[in-house]
Write a structure and sequence with these properties.
By secondary structure, the chain is an all-alpha fold. It folds into two domains: about 1-170, no CATH class; about 170-335. Helices cover about 85% and strands about 0% of the residues. The protein has helices at about 1-20, 25-50, 60-110, 115, 120-125, 125-170, 170-215, 220-230, 235-250, 255-280, 290-320, 325-335, and strands at about 50, 55. The protein has a two-stranded antiparallel sheet. Strand 1 (about 50) and strand 2 (about 55) form a beta hairpin. The longest helix has about 50 residues, at about 60-110. The protein is globular and about 80 Å long. The relative contact order is 0.09.
């Protein structure tokens, strides 16, 4: 029994080591697979459109889907880089407003914000922070070529996958089980992508309206960031609330706009996270909340932000696979809500 436990621990350690060591290869691959699922869903919806007796051929639907995703990806990256550069230009003004706010808090309420923040505010360099984010985006762009290459190969191979699967699994029962697993993965991923994108879009649009009314700089950029951050379970909504609130503090150098943005965006996130998302998702995803947090922590520790974004899709795939085999079905029961 002890030997078995030690073997399992050794296997887990080796697996984590392999995932960390190969992250430069695996992260672009996993992102490419996730994007392919999005392309696949769009392709399926395009093919369902019927104009008279005419339906779009699969290759044309794939082409349209790929163009849509490529355009959206280019637009998002371009908007983020452009707006981060604008923030970099506004950084000196924000830095000065922050210092003015610290002085006001000290004179008015005798609050030493530097002491309260354990020196965090004093050491904060907005330009350095923005520069770091720009460098990370540059790294993402450098990986984009590999992601695009993976996507192209996946699209090409997906057309020949079924015949190859039939050849590689001659036993009919095993083939049917494999096909069922793959169909369950497609269904789970499709539901997740469509529903999560829809909910995130609603959150982003509402956030944009709120930030525009308050007069926060670069409202569209922060709304776009909120839309993207909502793909990260739990933590994403928290970060999406704090970021624009801090920007309101830096921009106005006053507590009131900070509290208004914090309350408005925070309330929106609570409503979406606790009422709209559960209502929209219903039983379609069927993941245990604790498992989501655990997966978020584990994959975040292994692969950083990319791991956080991919954590729920990885759990969905795991459940679909474990559900199909008697030996692992018990584990899938615990993974579900």
């Amino acid at each position: 029994m002890l030997n078995k436990i030690l073997k399992i621990i050794a296997l887990l350690v080796l697996s984590v080591y392999a995932l960390v060591a190969a992250k430069n290869v695996l992260i672009p691959l996993f992102i490419a697979i996730l994007i392919w699922f999005i392309i696949y869903e769009i392709t399926t919806n395009i093919q369902s459109i019927k104009i008279g007796k005419y339906r779009f051929p699969r290759w044309l639907a794939y082409l349209f889907s790929t163009i849509i995703i490529a355009t959206a990806g280019y637009f998002i990256l371009n908007a983020m880089i452009h707006n981060l550069r604008e923030i970099n230009e506004l950084a000196p003004k924000y830095q000065q407003n922050l210092r003015n706010f610290e002085t006001w808090a000290k004179n008015t309420y005798d609050l030493d914000l530097e002491m309260i923040s354990a020196g965090w505010l004093k050491e904060m360099d907005i330009q350095a922070l923005v520069g770091s984010l720009l460098n990370q985006l540059s790294g993402l762009i450098s990986n984009s070529f590999m992601i695009v290459l993976y996507i192209l190969f996946i699209i090409i191979e997906s057309e020949y996958f079924t015949p190859k699967l039939k050849q590689s699994i001659p036993k009919k029962s095993a083939l049917l089980n494999t096909v069922e697993v793959l169909n369950n993965i497609k269904k789970s991923m499709g539901n997740y992508i469509i529903l999560k994108t829809g909910v995130s879009l609603i959150t982003g649009v509402c956030s944009y309206i709120i930030l525009l009314i308050i007069g926060v700089d670069l409202a569209f950029f922060w709304a776009l960031l909120i839309f993207l951050l909502n793909y990260i379970p739990s933590v994403g909504s928290l970060i999406a609330t704090v970021f624009p609130s801090l920007v309101a503090l830096f921009q106005f150098g006053s507590l009131q706009p900070f509290l208004i943005v914090l309350f408005a965006i925070g309330t929106l996130q609570v409503v979406v996270g606790n009422f709209i998302e559960p209502k929209v998702f219903g039983d379609k995803l069927n993941i245990n909340g604790f498992v989501v947090i655990l997966a978020l922590s584990v994959w975040g520790a292994i692969w950083g932000i990319a791991g956080m974004v991919l954590s729920v899709p990885i759990v969905l795939v795991t459940i679909a696979i474990f559900d199909q085999f008697p030996q692992t079905k018990g584990i899938s029961v615990f993974l579900k809500s």
